[in-house]
Amino acid sequence: MTGATLATAHWRRLGGEGTDRCTLAQVDNGWILAGQALWREDEVDCRLTYAVRCDPDWRSLSADVTGRCGKTAVRLRIAASGDGWALNDVAQPGTEGLLDIDLGFTPATNLLPVQRLAGRGGVQQAPAAWLVPGLDRLDRLEQTYDRQGAGKVGYTAPSVGYEDILRLHPSGFVTFYPGLWEGWVDE
Fold it and tell me: What is the pTM of this model?
């Protein structure tokens, strides 16, 4: 990864085994999130690396996810197009018009709508193309973000039954995601 590193986030999973580490860098054509997530779920060990590319206005362009979950090799290419999102060159229905990608296994991608919506008051709709836990498709994930003052944002994702207040670092990385993740950020 080339560019100026702005921050590195570190998380540990709550309610299960797992860690994640992600670096935010500014590059010539926008932003890159690059990280590695390790976790154990249902007796399966997963080790994935990811890179998410965004334009200068924090709109997601593409993501690559590689690694292993158990004995299964993972090699995913996610890309935005004029007609929505594609996963390994297969169009994903229902993803038309979505600006954000949400890699469901990491809190890193919450940074994207947090940054894009910075400075906007009130509840902001931010539906995303969500990589589902099975890592085999993208679904539309309805989400809202509502700034609650310095370092806090109200977050809802009704289709997965989640609603809570997330704590944020000034970089936009989530540092506390109740019930799911907690972490810190190095600058």
Answer: 0.94
* Location of structure tokens 């590195």: 8
- Distance CA(36)–CA(162), nearest Å, equals 24
Structure tokens at 20: 């994640």
User: Which residues form the domain of 87?
Assistant: 4-186
Per DSSP, the three-state class of 114 is: helix
144 vs 168: CA distance, rounded Å: 15
Number of domains in the chain: 1
Residue 18: HSE in the Cβ half-sphere, 13 Å Cα cutoff: 25
Q: In 3-state terms, what secondary structure has residue 109?
A: helix
Condensed to tens digits (0 to 9), the pLDDT of residues 113-135 reads 999 988 788 899 999 999 999 99
Q: Would you say 25 and 6 are in contact if contact means Cβ atoms under 8 Å apart?
A: yes
- Contact between 3 and 90 (Cβ < 8 Å): no
